[in-house]
Amino acid sequence: MKNKRANEEQSMKDLMDIFKQKHKLNPGLDKVDVEKAWMNELGPAMKNYTDTIRFKNNILTVHLSSSTLREELSYGKAKIIKRLNESLGRELIQKIILR
Q1: Residue 43: CATH number of its domain
Q2: How far apart are the first and last CA of the chain?
Q3: Is 0.70 topped by the overall pTM?
Q4: Which helix (H) or strand (E) holds 51?
Q5: Domains in the chain: how many in total?
Q6: Residue 68 lies in a domain
Q7: In angstroms, rounded to a whole number, what is the distance separating the alpha carbons of residues 47 and 30?
């Protein structure tokens, strides 16, 4: 059996992707990326009103401390999803639940 290292050159990105798949790290890393995108895209003021952020099965659940803000954001869910997915570079978020 031949040694892959001697015969193939792979980019660091490809190796990281293989490592993430092998150790099932993608869901956890996606969660971190989504939380970071929420804070970056909706601005620093949003950090004061955001209690918790959960991401599972392509559904983003955000608990907000302001009912007024929750109502305002509920009108623009589609736009928020689009903005967050653009920031992430892929279609990761399919639905947002505001609580």
Answers
A1: 3.30.300
A2: 56
A3: yes
A4: strand 50-56
A5: 1
A6: yes
A7: 19
